[in-house]
Design goal:
Layout (H helix, E strand, L loop, with lengths): L27 H13 L3 E2 L14 E4 L4 E5 L2 E5 L13 E6 L2 E11 L4 E4 L88 E5 L5 E11 L5 E7 L5 E14 L8 E13 L2 E4 L4 E7 L5 E7 L2 E7 L5 E12 L6
Parallel strand pairs: 1-2
Antiparallel strand pairs: 2-3, 3-4, 5-6, 6-7, 8-9, 9-17, 10-16, 11-12, 11-17, 12-13, 12-14, 15-16
Length: about 350
Amino acid sequence: MDKQNNNPTEVGSPPLELPPFPTSNLKLEDFIIVLSALQRIKQTVSGEPAFTPKNFLDQIQFDEDGSLWLYIAGAWVHIIGSGGGSVAGSDKDIQFNDGSALAGLDSLTFDKNTNTLTLGVEDDTSTIQAPDATTADIDGAALNIQSGYGNGAGSGGPININGGGNGGTEGDGATITLNPGEGKGSGFQSGDVKLLTRPGQSSARGGREVLNNGTDAFSERFIGTVNTTDATPTTYTLFTAPANRSVSVEVKVVATRTGGSSGSAGDSAAYIRRALYKTTGGTTSLIGSVQDGFTQEDQAGWDATLVISGNDIQLQVTGATNNNILWNFEAYFIHTTPSII
């Protein structure tokens, strides 16, 4: 066999007259033909063959690196086998195609025992990137990182993004940066940083943001919605006060009339309320009074405040008769206890 990718030469016996290699619906007899042929001739090339096969045997070429070339549907197909060649790199290195050769790097590894993919080397930068656009006026590719959905009553899997810690004796912890893209040109804005939470089902709260310094100092924030159609005070439970702890609360509320036979289109209101609570001996109490940080309203009968029900801290909103009102709020807590909402 000529190893310069020229037409193959037969070794030791006359050429076989065999049918063309099938490209679909392979049967057992097809593989028997292949095995019988391989016993008579092993054709070797270096890299992709540069000729068009004229018979069945020509369609099967062995590469010097131990891989296999098959001529299928008018083109050479490279089959990298595990038996003919050895793996590249060190243990746990991920194998990849490097110019038609099998390669592995210590900077790209996978540990099957911990399901850990490691990318990069120390004191360097590694990048996971979706492709840039190469066609004019076409957006770049999107990149999604998503955990798994739960099944039945199971919860969805969490996503953790952890910065590296110091070396154990001294050194700074890692910074985590969210860096949106820069806009260019007239009327084109730069990218946003969005944090999307989900509304709760039934009486459950929606998703929250939690800031914790790794000890027992916490701040938490979440958004929610209340709907009213009359002047009956309506409550929304923000959290259950923790035992033997104090919690500072601030709630910002925006209300908009969305319909009804009374009031005027676009009637609105806004409120900021602040309060401090403590729980001792199993009883939650308000320290001082609820502070009115801001009040602006089209209808004087509307109101928003904070109330206690048992050990629950609640937002209470009051609308007006025959007014359909949408109340959106943001609740913010500072406390010295594990997460309370």
